[in-house]
Amino acid sequence: MIESSQQPLVAAAADTRHGLTHLHDDAGGRPGAPILAQTTTANDRRTKRTGIARYGYLAYSGLAVAMGMVHFGFHLGEFNNISKILPCLSIPHDTPTSPFLGLALPPCIPMSTLQFSFLNAVLALSGAAGATVAGALCKSHGRRRVLHFAALPLAVGDLLMVFAASYAQLLIGRILAGFATGAYTAVSPVFLAEIAPAKLRGIVGNLASAGIAMGLAVAGLAGYYWTEPPSWRWLLAVALLLNAAQVGMVLGVPESPAHLRQVGEVERARAVETRLGWEHEGEVEAAAAVEVVDEPQTKVDAKLHEAADEMLVAASPGPSSSSSLTLTPLPTTAVAPPSHAPTLLEFLTRREYRRALVILGIAHASQQLSGINVFFAYSFSILTLIFTPSEAALFYLIMAWANIPVNFLPGLLVDRAGRRPLILFSMLTMALAAALFAVAAHFILPEFAMAMFLTAVVVFAVGLSNVPYILTAELVLPSAVPAAAQAALAVNALASFTVLFGTPPMLDALKEGTFVVFAVYLAVAAAALAVLLPETRGRPAEEVVAELHRRSGVAEMEGERLVRAAA
């Protein structure tokens, strides 16, 4: 900095002769050194380095937070490759104990098909409990601390499973792991949306689904190599390494700016946003107001973020807790006037919400009853209907890793094609793929079966993976979203438990016919949505709700009531 008491005044006149920018002093207008050009170049370099550092920190923070979703994906697929070894189906019950880290542990854990089904499915039930607790803790402790809190039950659960000597020990470990992963799935997507600048929210938000895919891929890789006694315990121990990695990474992650503002730490929130690459000239205001953007991913994730916010609200106790958990608001395209916030009971029983309830129920149930988790949690059992065990393990490994980039498709398509056509296309194509897979399995057509298997996974990502969550925020007025999200969360969890619990007995009884059941359900559900579901893309919530009321006759009933009241 030039002190005025020591230097002559410098005028800001620029001489651009010879392609140089000079400064002239007031003493005689003599051209000085090209200070301005040098300063501008230095500032540009400094700005570039700062931008790289900020986006690097955003990438680090996003990956650390998304590790919570990696845990969920890993635990969803951890038993897949050992589904024959773990319950002692492929080795004798009286096989001698196998030493593991100096301990004499059984080579497998005897259990029935129903017990193994429940062991898998309990992840959904305990996960719902974990989401409930996480929703409450987020309000008082913030997102970052909840991620650390969840690491403790996860570590205990993983240790119990690694050293399990009985079914009870394995089950308790699975329940604890499910509780922790449920907390992660409730917090991580919202946390990702809150730390991302508006222009990058779509990309950062997609880390949540990519994290699940990564977890499944890691489980597939570990399961490809560690499947025999006692090495399957090393497969389960991978979860401990993932947990330790996230605990260490989250230490370097800031608290959510939304939570910091919520507790009154505005200056700290601004400092965090700056460090993460936010542009404060309108960035914060854009997060709190409606903004028209060009990038489809940003608009898509705005809806996903809103639905995720309300899912987190719904996870907390109480009939209507939206007012006590104010995250970075991302409203729909029109701001609704203040209206009554229905309780969950009112949402379930009042006629004005009935059509939205039915649509959300079908959409969220179909997300799970499509059988998508079956393709990952039980793929080894399914693929061995056609392939040898080694071929089945290799195909699953390839599919799991290929599934990671597939999870970026929704952000590219939802705002271009619309919600209604995408979810119907996804459901009907999955139904066709499931039916054709059953045919391929019956006639032992490996190549065709592989193609149908991959088709089902890809088309799920196109529509069913995210449209149900978007619809949660678009089929009702903003005041009713918390109750709608509670109902949707309950349906989703119940459907997930049902399909994970029911699939192994169905595979035993029906073999490839199991996929005919999935196909029939999806076809019927798609037909119902084709009749009930309006397009919601780009429409204000009031307009969508008015259309639902007209279709269900609520508008006419309300008009008659007003006429009677006036008379």
Structural notes for this entry:
With 567 residues, the protein is mainly α. It has a domain at 335-567: MFS general substrate transporter like domains (Growth Hormone, Chain: A, Up-down Bundle), CATH 1.20.1250.20. 69% of the residues lie in helices and 3% in strands. It contains 23 helices and four strands. The chain has helices spanning 35-77, 113-162, 167-195, 201-205, 207-225, 232-250, 257-262, 266-275, 283-288, 296-314, 344-349, 354-369, 372-377, 379-383, 389-406, 409-417, 419-442, 446-464, 467-474, 481-510, 514-532, 541-552, 554-566, and strands at 10-15, 22-25, 98-100, 103-105. α12 runs antiparallel to α19 (467-474) and α17 packs antiparallel against α18 (446-464).
The helix/strand order is: EEHEEHHHHHHHHHHHHHHHHHHHHHH
- Strand percentage: under 5%
CATH superfamily of the domain at 335-567: MFS general substrate transporter like domains
Q: Could you give the distance between the termini?
A: 80 Å
By helix and strand content, what is the structural category? mainly alpha
Mean pLDDT: 79
Overall, the morphology is: globular
- What is the CATH C level class of the domain at 335-567, in words? Mainly Alpha
**DSSP E strands, number:** 4
Question: Nearest-angstrom radius of gyration?
Answer: 28 Å
CATH architecture of the domain at 335-567, by name, is Up-down Bundle
Main sheet attributes: strand count, strand direction, barrel closure: 2 strands, antiparallel
Instruction: Note poorly predicted spans.
Output: 1-30, 285-302, 312-338
The CATH topology assignment of the domain at 335-567 is Growth Hormone, Chain: A
How much helix is in the residues?
55-70%
Q: Helix count, per DSSP?
A: 23
